[in-house]
Amino acid sequence: MEIKSAEFVMSNSDVSKCPKNLLPEYAFIGRSNVGKSSLINMLTNRKNLAKTSGRPGKTQLINHFLINGNWYLVDLPGYGYARVSKSAKKTFQKFITQYFSLREQLVSAFVLVDIRHEPQPIDLDFMIWLGENSIPFSIIFTKADKLKPNAITRHVEAYKQRMLETWEGMPNYFVTSSSKSIGKDEVLDYIANINADFKG
Ligand code: GTP
Ligand code: MG
Hints:
This protein has 200 residues and is an alpha/beta fold. Helix content is 34%, strand content 21%. It has 5 helices and 7 strands, in the order ββαββαβαβαβα. The chain has a 7-stranded mixed beta sheet, sandwiched between helices. Strand 5, helix 3 and strand 6 (137-142) form a beta-alpha-beta unit. Residues 36-37, 58-59, 75 line the site of magnesium ion. Guanosine-5'-triphosphate (GTP) binds next to helix 1.
């Protein structure tokens, strides 16, 4: 899919204030600093469309980006960031949960995990929660530029084995790097295929 336009639409912490039209949307979720905002910039070829930072906790709201005038990418705050206050964490959790439970336009979530790390309980638990709530998701492994090809294969294989302890199959997954533009066509083609079905 070619990205012809990508524009920031709005930020808010209230799912009822998100765009009202019925365009399909895809949300990026995962631990703080995993690379959600960077991935949005990579996929859309824009350096600063979504705000990124080396310090975790940069994205604090639900951010809608309109792509090619007919679908949305959604950047969300990360979970699992220890240094925000307990009450801030609760607020985040509340609106993230509300977003996923109430947003009917959400077609699929992408759960981002850093390819360098072992499967983390917080991510595995979140995927189980998505499953229990019948929310379709794929896994996006990020920061693949940080590993050599054989380590990438090894880490993905270990993740699969871990997932198969809980799930009947490994979900759809993508290996990406925002700094090296790895995995871009795969993710965009996947979205394009779903969008085509969506339009019927
Ligand atoms: P929060 O908004 O805080 O939840 O973080 P985020 O998940 O949006 O992460 P963000 O995109 O802001 O990136 C966090 C850090 O990781 C930044 O320093 C990025 O430059 C870096 N980063 C993101 N993606 C990649 C990647 O593919 N490769 C490498 N090497 N660094 C990356
Ligand atoms: Mg972010």
